[in-house]
Amino acid sequence: MLKNYFKIAVRQLRRQKMYSAVKTGGFALGIAACLLIALYIKEELSYDQLYPDAARIYRIVGNDNSNGVMSKWVSFPAPMAKTMAKDFPEVEKAGHLMPNSLFPGAGSNEVRPADKMENEHEDGFTYADQGMLDILKLPFVYGDRAHALVEPNSMVISKSKADKYFPGQNPVGKIMYLNSDKNWPRKVSGVMQDLPANSHLRYDFLLTTSGVEWWKGEQSDWDGNNYHDYILLRPGTNIAGFEKKLTTGIVRNYYLPTLIKDGDKNAEKELASFSLHLQPVADVHLRSYDIQDGLQHGDIRFVWLFGAIACFILIIACINFINLSTAKSANRAKEVGLRKVIGSHRSSLIKQFLTESLLFSFLSFALGMLLAWAILPYFNMLSAKSLTIPWTAWWLAPLMFLSAVIIGVVAGLYPSLYLSSFKPIMVLKGQLSRGSKSSILRNGLVVFQFTTSIILIISTAVIYNQVHFILNKKLGYNKDQVVLLHGANTIGDGVKGLKTALLKLPQVQSVSISDYLPIANTKRNGNSFWIAGKQNTDEGVDTQVWQVDDDYVRTLGMKIVTGRNFNPAMPSDSQALVINQTLVKKLGLKDPVGKRIANGNTTFSVIGVVQDFNFESLHDDIGGLVMRLGNSPSIVSVKVNTAAMSGTIASISATWKKFAPGQPIRYTFLDENFANMYADVQRMAAIFTSFAILAIIIACLGLFGLSAFMAEQRCKEIGIRKVLGASVSNITALMSKDFVKLVVIAIVIASPIAWWAMSKWLEDFVYSNRTTIGWWVFVLAGAVAVMIALLTVSFQSIKAALMNPVKAIKTE
Hints:
- The protein is α+β, with helices and mostly antiparallel strands.
- Helix content is 48%, strand content 17%.
- A six-stranded mixed beta barrel has the order 5-6-11-8-10-9.
- The longest helix is centred in the middle third of the chain and has 38 residues, at 346-383.
- The protein is elongated.
- The chain starts with a helix and ends with a helix.
């Protein structure tokens, strides 16, 4: 019987080529989308599973809920790790990282082996202690992991970097220089296997913290917060209980005494809302979207969103199958009646129709996997991933087979039950009308398809509008035509000569030397400020402290709203500050110029106020900022006054070569760096656009098939109407209006859902940095959906309207 079922299924497939193509094509597109998203989700959920004791490794997260505002961070004092290991028996091992690029060595560097003369730029530097290696148990290629970061000035590098700088050699014991600093040589003490792409720790160079103190007594000082702490808990530890114990112990024994010693009379009140929490290392990548950690990571909300989109697209494809199968029921009614008359049981008919459904499913899966393979490079570009289809994995073929069976059965179950339920006496008497009488279900499924599509269209429009708003918002500085020269710190004192030489170029308008810029991956330095004399009575204001030169404000096109800029000819400006408007408000300063403000026991004079500018992500409010004259020479900003950029870059490069002959020039553009800060939002917009187009294509395939069926069913009616004088436009409108009604209903349902979802998404941006959801978005989405539906249906409608009415009536 199975062979007979298969023969009939193949015969039906070949007889109804258009309907078969629509069914198979829609299924294949849905399966391809699901497969790609499944690969994406699998990769995102696989982060940080590589460590042998991953289930017992945690990152320490600080929480503070002052004034109803929750803030979370991961930076703690230097002695935190060793204190946890010493004071709490639940902690088997503790370690810390220091990726803060404020300190020399962390972040990025110009690097070379001691026997080479030319530097190369490298990212991925962090300070780490031996405890991190003990916790993570990273596999080593060369060297002894148990002692790799014990000695001062030691450094562990990844295998790929060892192969790059010491090809074919064991580099243990070799010396490397960072930023041409021969006073601080780094000895390679070990080579670790490259950390995989699915690790939140993306470092190629681990610099030891042994023997490192950035200020005297730092390793016992509980005032600074620069280290990310990790612990390995002993098996069986109660996490909730340990969190409370850890918070109480650290606050009572260390934080509180430190604040009291510093003269903070509000110490107990300030620490009342403070708590420490343990974040499983496997959660760091996807569940840190609300944590200030300076890392690039994913977002579990997007993972579930993409998973939901994949399900919706697959459901839309299944709906096409169900709709077309039930709509074509008339073509199978006589077959069902005859089979029942000659003794066929309903179960046999169900098996027959399920066999056809499974055949469609297997064909669709084969085509869908080929489509996924073809689309994968584009999907990788959109998602910034390097996904591959694991063709050789043992589980792939069984999984695809089982999925094809499940989807084939699910998609074919309703049509099978519906078609097998026809009563033979009514079929043979001709009393069964052509097509399914249950148009309510079919119409409801069409509405669902277009509701999903319209939600995606609206979401895409809102996201694109937000991207445009961000990239074109007035930021308080001018990001255009500013060239950033990186790695200038290797020149030493020659950086000032480089600035002078650049200013002589006719294309150069202004030059500034500072690593502190209003874009990601540049230096940051947070401290607290008070009105001078109120350190012991008022709560400090968290503030960024940037070291700049006297040309910084002019080069970046900022505006001094009151007071003046720095003047290096005035010795007193070495203890002067230019502050932003936000800090003026937070400190409650009136007439701020000339006022004294303090950072701890050091006081400064305010000489000017700069207009607020966005120096962090537009997801956040503008914070307090002070600028002071200082030396921070890694980045040189060059403001040019010409659009002929290629010639300008050539002149800048020639000048650079005179000062740094052993280091190739490395430059970027400020506006491009700014745009890269929001690459995730732009990527999301592109992904939503792709999914929206895919959902619409699948929905339109079903609509096309249904409109063809309706034209076929109403062939006689159309012929009679034409004989009675109906025009082509009348008939086209008649055929289209029912489908347009369904799309309008979908618009009404989709609009509030999309508005709610996008309003929640926009809440990730502060109020002043988000766009509004205008009425035009819903009108646009509705117009696009109606137009697409009309274009899809009108092909069959016009074809039916142009048919010879005599032939239609005669045929009928």
